[in-house]
Structures are given as structure tokens and as C-alpha cells.
Specification:
By secondary structure, the chain is mainly beta. The chain has seven helices and 33 strands. The strands form eight sheets. It has a six-stranded mixed sheet with strand order 16-15-13-9-12-17. A five-stranded mixed sheet has the order 6-4-1-3-7. The relative contact order is 0.08.
Length: about 425
């Protein structure tokens, strides 16, 4: 019994699937045509803001017209159609006079639909009737009412509108009492810049809203941008380049102000931890000096107050300078077959470092070495030298130095 019931159920399922397959084959495969009615398709008017306006004319009535269509075609194509997918387009560019006008229209199918397989079996109207009048224009300002507090710790700045003025079109009597347009923006709880497209409302000179469908404009929306910013206090810093005998331990540095408060978007400020004023090379500092720096803020931020300059005071202690004359020079990397002798008889080197070490050292503690690896022939060369000190770790030479070297062939020196 159970096996018999299972067989019966299976046969029923197979029969249904076969029926569906046959229906699909006949209905779709054999291109069976059916009909569908689509109602309330809005009419679009091409040329309204172009040729019609250039002729000093505008639509006064009929611009809200709709058309109903009954379309015949394959079901596979009709499935793709809807009120929003079909366009009814009437061309106004040929209108040159006021009054009642009848316009023919075109039916535009979506790209995914093969229009050649469709036929309009019935339509509610073969033409679109409009009333045309003289065009008047008036430009009015656009204002924005901002409501709702932004999030704690954030500041709302002045709203930016695009466009800031609205060009209205209509009959003279309709436009006469229009004073301005206004949009409303709610920014309650906002913690970043708000950008929205908002429909406007027209107002008369008594601040009363005006609803008049005969008044037209080039745009229906106003883009409102309201910068929402926050603040962050960051320190002002210096970068220190140290040298032996010229380190942070020998100096005191004060910066006034020590920090500033920036205003900007939260995402921008999140990546800013400090502002660098300058790089100080400690070897070049005087015992006491005052330096002034403009406060340059990162892109996308601004200072909250009028402070635009930082004053840096530097005091250096326990450090002196001394100049010694060196007459003995060493040469490195001299190519084989050449010999070198210093033309420079004396090189004066300025040293800077801790007082007790500077006072103790002498010229014999300095080694001046010239790198001759770039020399490949006899002649006189001006070459850079490096200065090193033996036994003094808190002293270094200031600046860069060079000497003149005479290079000769080794055999010439032997022959001489």
C-alpha cells in the first residue's frame, strides 16, 4: 500500500512538471502574445528648459499629464515593463505661440526590451494637451533653517547652499509676491559634516509659505552642506639634532605657547598628535637665543584663537667652542701608483663640546683624514676631510672642511 501511494504521488508531480514545461514551451518558446495595461505613465516634456524657454514661453497647464497604454507582445518582454520603466516623451521645442497646444509623443522602452516585438493595442490619448503662456523669470535668494543640536563636543558652522539663488519661471502675477526660498536641515546628534539634497519651500514677503504649481524652477532640490567640526588641543614640538657635546642635557628649551587648539573634522584631527615648529641643530645654538616661528596648521584645520606665532627660548650651559690649527693630514684610498701631499699647510677647525673636555684637548688629539678614492690621475685636488678626536666623547667638530692635495705618480717621486 505504501509503495502504491508513493508511485501515485510521483506520477502526480511528474504530470505537473510536464504541464509546466509544455506551457512554457508554448507560451515562451512559441512566442505566444499576451496583453498588459499600464496606467498613469507620466509625460516628460523635452525642450521645456531649452527652446521653449528661449522663445519666452512656458507650460502653464498639462505638464502633469499621464497616459495609459495597453501593450501586446511576448510575455517574456511584457514582464520587463512597468510604469517606471516606460517613458512618454512630448517635444515642446516646436511651440512658438501662447494658448492651448496639442503635442504628439513618443513611447520609449527600456534598453532591455525589444520594442520591435511590442505593439500598442490601445492608448488613453493620442496627443497631450498643454496650455502655453508667456514666460517671466525672477531670481530669489535661498535660506536654510538649521534645527537640532549637534553631538556634544562638536560645532556646527554656517551652512553652504548650492545654488544660493533660485531662478523661478512663471506668470508675472504668480511670481510677483515670491520673496525667497527656504530649506530646513535637522542636524541633531551630528558628529561629522552633513550633506543633503533638500526640497525648498517658497515664501512671500509676509513669510507665509506659497504653494503654486504654476511656478517652475530649473532645480527641485537644494544641496546643503553643513560643516560639523570638533576641537583638539595638540602640543607644539621641536625636533632636535644632537651631536657629541651638543645634546639635550646641555640645553633648556621653552615654547610659548606650548600647545594650540585646532578645529576640524573629527577624522582629520584623529590623525594629528602634535605640530612640529622646526628642527634645531644643537651644535649651532648660541648660549642664549630667542626664536620665533609661525604656527602652520595641518590641511583641513584651523586655530581656535588668534595665536599665530610661537616663541622658543633656548639656554645652553656647560658648552664652549674652541678653534685649533691642524697641520698633519692622513690620506685614505689612494689608488696604487700614486702618491699624495697636502698643499694646505694649516686647517683651522672649530670644536664644540663640554667645557672641561674642550679645555683639555690639543691639536694632537685631532685626526684629519682625506678620502682620495675619486682621484685617478696626477694633479691638484680639493677634497673633503673628516675630523675625529681621540679620547674625547663629548666634543665634535662644527661644520665641514676640505683641503688641497697634490697627487703625483709614484715613479716620478722616486725619480726626483
Amino acid at each position: 500500500m505504501e509503495k502504491s501511494k508513493s508511485r501515485i504521488t510521483l506520477r502526480i508531480i511528474l504530470s505537473v512538471l510536464a504541464a509546466i514545461a509544455i506551457w512554457l514551451y508554448v507560451d515562451i518558446g512559441q512566442a505566444t502574445t499576451v496583453k498588459t495595461t499600464i496606467r498613469g505613465i507620466p509625460v516628460e516634456f523635452s525642450g521645456e528648459n531649452g527652446a521653449l524657454a528661449d522663445n519666452g514661453l512656458m507650460l502653464l497647464d498639462g505638464y502633469d499629464a499621464t497616459v495609459d497604454l495597453r501593450i501586446e507582445g511576448p510575455r517574456s518582454e511584457l514582464w520587463k515593463l512597468s510604469r517606471d520603466a516606460i517613458r512618454i516623451v512630448a517635444d515642446t521645442s516646436g511651440i512658438t505661440d501662447t494658448g492651448v497646444q496639442s503635442l504628439s509623443y513618443q513611447i520609449v522602452y527600456p534598453d532591455s526590451v525589444s520594442g520591435g516585438n511590442l505593439k500598442v493595442d490601445w492608448r488613453s490619448a493620442y496627443t497631450v494637451t498643454v496650455t502655453v503662456g508667456d514666460l517671466y523669470t525672477k531670481e530669489v535668494p535661498v535660506y536654510c533653517d538649521v534645527t537640532g543640536p549637534v553631538a556634544d563636543g562638536f560645532l556646527a558652522e554656517e551652512a553652504e547652499l548650492d545654488p544660493v539663488k533660485l531662478l523661478l519661471r512663471g506668470q508675472r502675477d504668480d511670481l510677483l509676491n515670491i520673496s525667497y526660498a527656504k530649506v530646513e536641515l535637522n542636524v541633531e546628534g551630528a558628529n561629522k559634516t552633513v550633506v543633503q539634497g533638500i526640497a525648498y519651500t517658497l515664501y512671500d514677503y509676509n513669510d507665509i509659505p506659497v504653494e503654486n504649481s504654476n511656478i517652475r524652477a530649473d532645480t527641485k532640490m537644494i544641496q546643503v552642506t553643513l560643516p560639523v567640526k570638533t576641537t583638539k588641543t595638540v602640543p607644539l614640538r621641536l625636533i632636535y639634532e644632537e651631536a657629541p657635546g651638543s645634546t639635550r642635557e646641555q640645553m633648556e628649551c621653552t615654547v610659548v605657547p606650548s600647545s594650540v587648539t585646532l578645529k576640524g573634522d573629527k577624522d582629520t584631527l584623529a590623525n594629528i598628535d602634535f605640530i612640529v615648529l622646526d628642527t634645531l641643530y644643537l651644535q649651532d645654538l648660541q648660549p642664549y637665543q630667542t626664536l620665533s616661528y609661525p604656527i602652520t596648521v595641518p590641511d583641513g584645520t584651523e586655530l581656535m584663537d588668534d595665536t599665530r606665532e610661537a616663541v622658543v627660548t633656548v639656554v645652553v650651559s656647560g658648552v664652549i667652542e674652541r678653534t685649533l690649527a691642524v697641520t698633519d693630514f692622513a690620506f685614505d684610498n689612494l689608488p696604487e701608483g700614486l702618491t699624495a701631499a697636502a698643499v694646505t699647510e694649516q686647517l683651522r677647525i672649530t670644536l664644540r663640546g663640554l667645557t672641561e673636555e674642550i679645555e683639555a684637548l690639543s691639536a694632537e688629539d685631532l685626526t684629519v683624514r682625506a678620502d682620495l678614492s675619486a682621484v685617478n690621475a696626477a694633479g691638484n685636488y680639493t677634497v673633503p676631510v673628516t675630523v675625529s678626536l681621540r679620547g674625547y666623547s663629548n666634543v665634535s667638530a662644527k661644520g665641514s672642511y676640505q683641503i688641497i692635495v697634490n697627487v703625483t705618480a709614484a715613479q716620478e717621486e722616486t725619480d726626483g
